[in-house]
Design goal:
With about 525 residues, the chain is α/β, with parallel strands linked by helices. It has 19 helices and twelve strands. Strand 8, helix 14 and strand 9 form a beta-alpha-beta unit. Pfam families: FAD_binding_8, Ferric_reduct, NAD_binding_6.
Length: about 525
């Protein structure tokens, strides 16, 4: 990646002198209120057996499970009357499909991306499977007691019922975590075939269920055929291999607007070099550039699986061509769908401090958010006074392709006398370097105020404390004309491995409430 020539972080800070400030209004979350802080801390506590499940989410699913069991079992015996369990099961089908879509109405009202609701989609799906089994085995038990099992199973409606029972259990058995992660394409095919068969079977089993079938098909069709088509672009892109990052840099000049900081897009590479299966796969990547930039949309895709490895090998062919005198990079055709996700209604520029913590390829999220804040500072629409970017990596050589980008963030804030924004970048590396001595010597020559490299993992609580103290120190409040007692809080945005979010939550819990209150409260968002 020719980062020395990159302009994705270039912001004209000199324009600030002629632009009046229109600061965004800050609405603090309920979790930052003193009276709700203990409850918020408990609800955000992650359970020991899952990096995804928190106490708050567990409470939601427990309440929902109780409602479903009450509807199925209240004044009812499943062994003598399991019909009610079937009706309750069918009531869940539209909800399962609604939560499975990328553009669902629940996420729109909750202001969260589909990925944040995926845990509830899986849970409601399990409830559906459980109730279908209650319904089916109740009838099996009754027929066996009455001695009519064989004759009952010959009836066409019952045959279709057994087929639906088998289909939904097949979907469940093919949806375990290892299947979703290691064989996602196969998982999707099994899901599609299984649910298609299930919908047909329940209609043939009980035609009265047709409204539920139509509702499920309508929700899925609206998302898949209409909404996703509106959000899909076919375009050309230039891909380059980044050996130090073990990643692929994708530049899409044909798309330069339409997303917010922290959002991701789903990418399909239309090339036979990706393989007959790989060219049909779609994968999500966080946008690393800011909207309306000269270079367009920029993605950094780390090599973490078969598909990304094929993409990296395809990009590496461009390096070989460049060594022979050809152009750097290789042009490919892409299908880009999105954007999705992001921080929802959270306005990062309305806080007094922002701490962006990234692990590995999560730096794309941090870069996009940091660039957005610099743009807001130029437009006079930023309240953030301290921006601290923390990047955790294994190999210090991974920094090399992004050093110009990271240093430009700091220099732009330092070079403007009208700016109150201070930018700090801390890079923590946890392993030994595979880089050449020349590369390591280059890293040793980097001396820029605001940029530091440290070995080992960061102490998250100490990083949070340092950022708060830098924000609320007396001379900063006087210099900016801000009343020290009226800070707008600190936003901590996290992007990286699942364990990183748990570490950040634990670190926030270690910071005493008095210090968090001094900055106006601390809010954690995870992308």
């Amino acid at each position: 990646m020719a980062s020395d020539d990159s302009h994705i972080n270039l912001v004209d800070m000199s324009r600030m002198q002629s632009i009046p400030k229109t600061l965004p209004r800050h609405i603090g979350p309920a979790s930052t209120f003193p009276s709700l802080q203990p409850l918020s801390s408990v609800l955000r506590t992650r359970l020991f057996y899952s990096q995804e499940m928190t106490v708050g989410r567990l409470a939601i699913v427990a309440i929902y499970l109780g409602i479903m069991l009450f509807a199925s079992l209240f004044k009812n015996n499943l062994f003598t009357n399991s019909k009610r369990a079937g009706y309750v099961a069918m009531s869940q089908v539209p909800l399962v499909f609604a939560l499975a879509t990328k553009n669902n109405i629940i996420g729109m009202f909750a202001a969260v991306g589909y990925e944040k609701l995926n845990f509830f989609h899986r849970f409601v799906g399990r409830i559906l499977v459980l109730l279908v089994n209650f319904h089916s085995f109740g009838y099996f038990y009754r027929w066996q007691l009455e001695g009519t099992f064989t004759s009952s199973m010959r009836q066409p409606s019952h045959i279709w019922g057994v087929l639906g029972f088998a289909a939904i259990n097949f979907v469940y058995l093919s949806s375990f975590g290892f299947m979703r992660k290691r064989f996602h394409t196969l998982f999707f095919v099994f899901h599609f075939v299984g649910f298609s068969l299930f919908l047909v079977a329940i209609y043939k089993h009980q035609p009265i269920m047709i409204p539920y079938v139509f509702a499920a098909c309508g929700l899925y069709g609206l998302d898949r055929v209409i909404l996703r088509s509106i959000k899909t672009r076919f375009t050309k892109a230039t891909i380059r291999a980044l050996p130090e990052l073990n990643a692929t840099h994708i530049q899409i000049p044909g798309i330069n607007a339409g997303w917010r900081a922290g959002q991701h897009v789903r990418v399909q590479v239309l090339s036979k070099s990706m393989g007959w299966v790989g060219c049909f796969e779609v994968h999500p990547f966080t946008v690393a550039s800011v909207s309306e930039s000269e270079e367009g949309m920029v993605l950094i895709c780390q090599d973490v699986g078969d598909w990304t490895r094929k993409l990296y090998n395809l990009a590496s062919a461009g390096i070989a061509a460049a060594e022979k005198g050809g152009e750097v990079g290789r042009e490919v055709r892409l299908m880009v769908e999105g954007p999705y996700g992001g921080l929802g209604c959270t306005v990062v520029s309305s806080y007094s401090a922002a701490l962006l913590i990234a692990g590995g390829s999560g730096i794309t999220f941090a870069l996009s958010a940091a660039q957005h804040l610099l743009n807001c500072e130029v437009k006079g629409q930023n309240q953030v006074e301290v921006l601290h970017v923390v990047w955790i990596i294994k190999d210090p050589a991974s920094v090399c392709p992004l050093i110009p980008t990271l240093t430009s963030l700091i220099r732009q804030a330092q070079c403007s006398p009208m700016s109150n924004l201070t930018v700090n970048v801390s890079i923590y590396y946890t392993g030994t370097s595979r880089a050449s001595p020349k590369t390591l010597a280059m890293l040793d020559t980097i001396h820029l105020g605001g940029l530091e490299m440290r070995p080992n993992r960061p102490d998250i609580a100490s990083v949070i404390t340092e950022t708060i103290d830098q924000t609320v120190k007396p001379n900063r409040g006087l210099a900016s004309g801000k009343d020290e007692t009226r800070y707008q809080g600190m936003i901590i945005a996290v992007c990286g491995p699942a364990g990183l979010g748990s570490s950040v939550e634990a670190g926030v819990g270690k910071v005493d409430w008095a210090r968090k209150r001094s900055v106006g409260g601390v809010e954690v968002c995870e992308e």
